[in-house]
Write a sequence for this structure.
């Protein structure tokens, strides 16, 4: 169990773009980053398009007023002038700003943590990849559910062959909080999500399914997605041509198959994200409502429930352990584990430690690009009438 | 609560074809039929292709040896000669015999209860329909899970509009007992199920998904299926060209959509059959492992769990109640409720009471034909590479 | 799996006292007894104190009207005169009649199946024991929940030492259907249960806790109860001096301890009966709402869920298996398994096969007497102000 | 939802005694206190009896080395000299140091947050109460599970009468991590817990049950405990005369009754803490493994599950909401909510705002004293042979 061990020499000075008063996700970024103040220290922020609101918000968080900025351009420029300027930045804006803000951050010499979905086009991802390499920086993607420790356990069990050959990957991120169309108009956090000019080709496929898709990649690193077929609907009609519900079928290169259901009109469902991995010998099932419980189901044997924090888990699943068994975790611990890994990755990059970088499991730029490919292939399939399309 | 009330004047004399020593389902038929001996009395049987085994089996059940027959042809002929001959017969044979045995039974003047899937071809169904009408008999299909009382509750809630407009129907009948290919060779009950000459175009699509598909029709009587897309696999390769796993997407005439997952290679899953109905305002969720619990999830309100046997259920859901709340039911009660309805239907048919027949909710010949359409549309879609096909 | 095997040569001719129109439990007796008609055949009945109601009820069940009787005395006398008279009788009356009816039945040469709690006084039990021995008959007690197959699995695991030394036995039978005092007045099935002249010294202690107490004895055959302490209440005041809620603490001879909570005012609880056995190395947990699932919890290892019908269970837990895995059971199967064992016991007694009798696990006269001791010790403790009393 | 709102003008400068390298609970204190750095800022520490280990630990947390101290006496003295000295201190030491450290802190003019159980004797509590009043400071107790939002919901529902009259309070804090006696010797965090000189009269009664007992007081503020009866055991014999298992029965002044089971030898149980409140009309059930789900069970109506973060909850239950529905919380959020309330209480005390203090729901000195009374009454009862004793 982690009790006060150091993972990096000192915390990174860290800034944030977005994530202010009207953002529900900003709190998760801050809490995730600030665990024990050993990975990141919140140093500067451009929280909001409304600078007054930004300043009030920052002061409430006891931040230094000098480090609050009207926009990211100013923040990057001013911080660059300081000896104690920020070293990493978080892009927590609506989707359409991810690309330009990430680009500007890299050009300002910062490591980047960007909200999902990363960008709209694969080409943008490739360009950013070249830029990041050139600048010697890394780009992380906040698939915020992917830090749960039992996901590492799933990965350990899958890659060690405990399930036999992987045959099926069944994914779901489907809740009902979009049933009421009023939210599209009234909530600032929702409004841009249903505006194609702000989110690109997809609503729930981008907003929800990219999370679960990444998690499936993390758990099953050897499965290469080949084709998808997507049927999507706007049950709340005003959302058309974006979708509030989508069914996706998947085919992997090795013959495995999969499904994804993503939805914000799955009325009343409070257990939104489910992952089931079916092997030839056994299955694993996990959901994000009870993230510290993992069901392992070997065919013909008793079902097992594995709990977070226990000594029988794989070393990878115990690596981030801090609370101890019986003390259950929530979403914030997932974010904290993730941010802890981001800091380790940045530190390794700074030190030129490619070995550490290669072995560290975290959502990086490649995964972000995979997310773009996923969304675009699904949207293309749906727009052609729900036919099979290659993922590329 | 039902305590000794009569539903029909006297029980039907009832015979069975198949369902003997090597059949796992025969017990369910007998127990379902024989509740309190008020609906059916087991009178004659052709349990087995092996007549000695049939006789031994019948004697163990304390049956009159004279009423045990080497085959259904003999049984129908001999019973027809008796004043106390059977009035109804159960066809519990492998699938490929359903059509001819049903036809022979109707011609012998018997009501028929037939195992699912009914026949291989829609034309056979239509022919049997004409014959049944001509003979004034009915044909019931043993979708044995469809007698659970809470399914009636789901139907009541759906048809009364408590869920709003139905948007999605998510179905699953997926277990893992086919993971081991040895069963295909060793188990008599399994062997014929993977032989195309005995089961027609499909394995799990016929063996499993027809159950859940009927249940969805029963719950949502107003939803008309328009198109399906099916991707199927034989993860145990020897089963090809039959499938042991299938993903189906559905489109309904009114814009609703749905999914079905049926599988016998869903390793380790013990909660095999799930039904989720998603409306614009609320959802319902049920599974056959806990059949006396129904989850009602109105968006934005607390989730509710409704229990069988309670006074707050609809009259339809309480109609078959015999145990009382807290006393939980299993699969046998579902079969008993179903057989009770079959008896009421036969009695109504005999009395020319079309009103009762029309209002009685039970799987009849039309539903059996719908099941054939379902299987054939799925198989056609899969064979064309998983494309959309019309259900007809 | 049981498929049509014979356990006894032919079914017993069986009669019932009580269990008619106003009885909720009669259906469970009949269905339990009549599985496949191979253990018992319902032959005669004195269903009701109201003979007209008895006759109507019997006719609805398609019974021979000649075998319906106005009272058990007449039934025993008349049946004794027939060559095909009943051989066993079920006492399903209110508690205060158990003793005299059982005595009369034994004197009439019948095996007896009696509802719980057996009698009011230990002395009555001892007298009946002598009478039964003299007559060469057995007396069974319908602890109707005790036939679930996974209870046999629990017994196998406990007696084979898989839990280590048994330290705690935590029991609960606590529902809320007595919250409404109106039931005491309005329901015929409830009225006598709150009348001390009909039920003796206890209401829920007798009506509910004797079930769970027997099940704990069955699971842990080596634990000898030494002392109890009981605090009881009548939260619905009109029930005083009977209780509608009781907390019991238990001390076993070997230092193990236990608890029982029995209640009919545990508002809203639908999962009424729970059993938890805690050993020095592992625990078992079971509840009657999900009787086909058994939680096995070895300390420091993943929790396991064992399911009924699976090949990994002990031979004892598979002995009564008829449905097959995935096909879940309800309360009726528990009753059926129990009645099947009663028939085997009666047959063994008739054949003088003491070896079979000794090894057969079923609630016999001794267990019935233990139930009386349990109730009386609890009542005595409570009446003395909730102090420790010896169980004797 | 809380998004960056200020609850107090600026965070308190905060120190900690204990909670270092060998302490599992220290992380929870730090994370709880440091949410968004708006309630407390970790400023000084005496983490350890081993000063080198303290210094290394503090440096890993990026603390200023000058503010790391060899013991609390030095810390209080040195900090008192500074203008920016600490204003509040956390006592996270083994139990036997709570009293003297709290006393010294108050004398040094600090607000105190103390681990449970508070002290050994009621008299110590009374003395500290007088001292705190004299100094104008408050003493909070870290019942760390009591900050979950749904506990506030339970309180709202109980006090508003939704359950009717409260009849029963059923409590449990029983896990199995003490099954292995080796832990008593090998783990520094466990060793002192089984040493009477360090923990006083009780092991699990103090270590575990005080948590759940306080939570029951918080939920049912009007229930006054009158008598307890406790039977306790040391199933691991070396723990005698301390207990590793205890059963407690409770009687409240208004006739309600209750139970507590606390244990560290409840082998294999991973769902350790349960609270069930039974009223005359409905019950509530909650457990700390799934803290964001509350079961509300009105007798005769469908069961309801209420989820954290939803608009249908009481204002009190929404007050600390920061994550939003579907984003589930863990133990750290409970601690954070609690520390947030401690800060508000200290701020109110500083401002002389008695109104705020009176209405704020948090575990204060009185609750700490109640915990001492609870432990001592239980121990006294057990030592007298498990008899009823008054709580005083």
């Amino acid at each position: 169990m982690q009790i006060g061990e150091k993972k990096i020499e000192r915390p990174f000075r860290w800034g944030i773009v977005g994530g202010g008063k009207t953002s529900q996700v900003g709190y998760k970024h801050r809490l995730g980053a600030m665990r024990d103040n050993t990975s990141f220290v919140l140093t500067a922020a451009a929280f909001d398009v409304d600078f007054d609101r930004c300043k009030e918000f920052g002061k409430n968080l006891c931040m230094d007023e000098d480090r609050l900025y009207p926009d990211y351009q100013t923040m990057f420029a001013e911080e660059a002038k300081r000896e104690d300027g920020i070293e990493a930045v978080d892009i927590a804006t609506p989707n359409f700003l991810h690309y330009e803000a990430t680009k500007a951050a890299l050009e300002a010499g910062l490591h980047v943590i960007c909200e999902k979905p990363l960008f709209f086009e694969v080409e943008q991802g490739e360009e950013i990849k070249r830029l990041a390499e050139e600048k010697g920086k890394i780009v992380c993607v906040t698939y915020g559910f992917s830090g749960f420790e039992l996901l590492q356990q799933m990965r350990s069990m899958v890659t060690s062959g405990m399930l036999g050959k992987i045959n099926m990957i069944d994914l779901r991120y489907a809740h009902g909080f979009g049933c009421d169309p009023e939210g599209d108009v009234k909530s600032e956090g929702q409004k841009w999500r249903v505006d194609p000019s702000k989110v690109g080709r997809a609503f729930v496929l981008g907003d929800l399914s990219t999370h679960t898709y990444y998690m499936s990649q993390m758990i099953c690193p050897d499965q290469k997605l080949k084709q998808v077929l997507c049927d999507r609907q706007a049950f709340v009609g005003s959302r058309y041509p974006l979708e509030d519900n989508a069914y996706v079928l998947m085919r992997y290169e090795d013959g495995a198959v999969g499904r994804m259901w993503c939805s914000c009109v799955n009325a009343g469902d409070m257990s939104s994200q489910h992952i089931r991995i079916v092997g030839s010998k056994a299955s694993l099932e996990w959901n994000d409502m009870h993230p510290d419980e993992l069901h392992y189901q070997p065919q013909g044997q008793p079902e097992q429930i594995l709990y977070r924090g226990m000594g029988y888990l794989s070393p990878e699943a115990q690596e981030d352990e801090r609370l101890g068994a019986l003390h259950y975790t929530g979403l914030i611990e997932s974010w904290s584990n993730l941010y802890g890994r981001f800091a380790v990755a940045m530190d390794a990059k700074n030190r030129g430690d490619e070995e550490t970088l290669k072995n560290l499991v975290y959502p990086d730029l490649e995964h972000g690009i995979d997310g773009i490919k996923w969304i675009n292939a699904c949207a293309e399939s749906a727009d052609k009438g729900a036919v099979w399309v290659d993922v590329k």
User: Anything to note?
Assistant: Chain A has two domains: 12-145, 151-323+368-390. The mean pLDDT of chain A is 96. The CA atoms of residues 188 and 333 of chain A lie 27 Å apart.
